[in-house]
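Table S2 (text version). Query chain:
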Amino acid sequence: MHFASSLNVCLILFAAIRLLYANLAKRITMFLAFTSALSLAVFYEILEYVEDLIYMTNRSGPGKDTADDLLFNTLGVITALLIFTKPFDRLQNINRRQ
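Corresponding structure-token output:
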């Protein structure tokens, strides 16, 4: 779940930044999408922890759950940037030619 959700969030952020700031360098766009998506993932893990403290639940799971979640978040973001940024650039180039 964390892999797929971070992948989707990163794709949305990348597309939004690329469309809003078309003249921004691709590497900067990738960096902003990467850091923003992982910041949201960390914020979500903090929320899980706070909810556990307040409501006495066990959402954050056993010991390594948070570390595993953040690892899969990172892998999802990296996968999104490696696989889906080139097709997005091709689409933008096609639209510019028309």
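Notes on Table S2: The chain has one domain: 2-97. The mean pLDDT is 89.
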